[in-house]
Design a protein that fits this description.
five-stranded mixed β-sheet; Aminopeptidase; 4 helices; 156 residues; 5 strands
């Protein structure tokens, strides 16, 4: 039987793990190779300014096996913040072992206890059916919105 999953706040000591996870996630899900310098600076920026968000780490047997980032979006319609779950990654050998469910439960508990949080959101690749199934099983549903973007190259 697997030992329990412990969820904790990430610290600056976790930056290498977080960068490795984000690089792996981008390659696996979007077939993108991220610039590790930009990714490292972006990860460090979260720790430098908590208004950008916070990371959570999942550990089993004292070793990190997963992580996610929470960022904030103000909703004038609801007079509160949506917490966005981003940069989700679970190590290959820990998948299907409850790691994301534990991370999600931790974030949901913190969100419900925090003043002014109106809900949780995340985005998922259209073809990532396994992730969609996991998110639905946890009570999330399709919001009916499509995500559109304009990306500015060379601004990092």
């Amino acid at each position: 039987m697997n030992n329990p999953i412990i969820i904790r706040a990430a610290t600056a000591a976790d930056i290498i793990f977080l960068v490795d996870c984000n690089a792996a996630m981008a390659l696996e899900t979007e077939h993108k190779t991220l610039d590790r310098g930009v990714l490292t600076r972006g990860t460090e920026a979260v720790f430098a300014n908590p208004r950008r968000g916070f990371y959570r780490i999942a550990e089993r047997d004292g070793a990190p096996v997963g992580c996610l980032l929470v960022t904030f979006e103000w909703s004038d319609w609801r007079n509160g913040d949506w917490w966005w779950i981003q940069s989700v990654y679970v190590s290959r050998d820990a998948r299907r072992g409850g790691v994301f469910s534990a991370l999600y439960a931790d974030v949901e508990e913190h969100a419900r206890a925090a003043a002014g949080v109106v809900g949780l959101r995340l985005y998922v690749e259209n073809e990532n059916r396994a992730a969609q199934s996991t998110y639905t099983a946890l009570g999330m549903h399709d919001s009916g919105y499509r995500l559109l973007e304009t990306e500015f190259a060379g601004t990092n």
